[in-house]
Write a structure and sequence with these properties.
With 223 residues, this protein is an alpha+beta fold. It is built from seven helices and seven strands; from the N terminus they run H-E-E-H-E-H-E-H-H-E-H-E-E-H. Helix 3 packs across helix 6 and helix 4 packs across helix 5. The termini are far apart. The structure holds the ligand C[C@@H](N)C(=O)N[C@H](C)C(=O)O and zinc ion (ZN). It catalyses: D-alanyl-D-alanine + H2O = 2 D-alanine.
């Protein structure tokens, strides 16, 4: 199994990748008929979360390709795209608290390691930005033709091994993850192996997983 122990996001790797400088705009996604937009953090009342899912224009184009790649019976659902540093900070600390609650005996460095599988450090440093602050990351899931969100074998943002993309969950959950992974990677995204829902295009995480020497996108504002 592809294990996040082997493929964990390596923040030191960011230093080996030339930072992205593209000024491509962030675009809204909610009016597109190719998918359902469900800005999950706004719906959950998270302070500062946007009611719109914003992504870079070329991420938008690739999402259209991904939705067209899906077999009959599936719809793409966009849960999150661009995220402010403040929202990233809240998510990082919320997930860290959940890791501590789930594993009260873990040492601080193990808490850190586990947390980082499920939430990036809040950063707008051009050399090491949090992936979502670049507008190149998306969190996505699948729905059925009636718009019912499908069970993917773990909760979204569940900080456990069940969330690893290739985890040994129930066969029908593995099948759904495979469908999503196939549609997204064929469209040009890379997946974070510790999260079945998180995909990147154009940022340093994408550059690292696809062995590109340079990122396209650095941190940006939603202005
Ligand atoms: C918080 C979660 N939805 C997510 O996006 N995790 C990745 C690792 C991130 O925070 O960049
Ligand atoms: Zn994400």
């Amino acid at each position: 199994m592809t294990s996040p122990q082997n493929h964990a996001l390596d923040w030191d790797a960011a230093g080996q990748i030339a930072p992205g400088t593209s000024d491509e705009p962030l675009v809204p996604t909610s009016t597109c008929a190719h998918w359902i937009t469900w800005p999950v953090y706004f719906k959950n009342g998270l302070d500062g979360a946007l009611a719109e899912v914003l992504v870079r224009a070329s991420v938008y184009d690739r999402l259209i390709k991904a939705s067209c790649n899906l077999p009959e019976g599936y719809q793409l659902v966009l849960l999150d795209g661009w995220r402010s540093k403040e929202v990233q900070n809240t998510l990082f600390h919320t997930i860290r608290q959940q890791v501590i609650a789930d594993h009260p005996k873990l040492k601080p460095n193990e808490i850190e390691r586990l947390t980082l599988q499920f939430a990036s450090r809040p950063s707008d440093d051009p050399l090491r930005p949090s992936p979502h602050i670049t507008g190149g990351s998306v969190d996505v899931t699948l729905a059925d033709p009636d718009g019912q969100f499908l069970d993917m074998g773990s909760q979204f943002d569940e900080p456990s091994e069940r969330s690893w993309t290739l985890a040994q969950v129930e066969p029908h959950h593995m099948e759904r993850r495979h469908v999503l992974l196939q549609a997204m990677t064929t469209a040009g995204f890379t997946n974070l192996p510790s999260e079945w829902w998180h995909f990147d295009y154009g940022n340093w995480v994408w550059a690292w997983y696809s062995q590109e020497p340079k990122a396209i996108f650095g941190p940006t504002d939603a202005a």
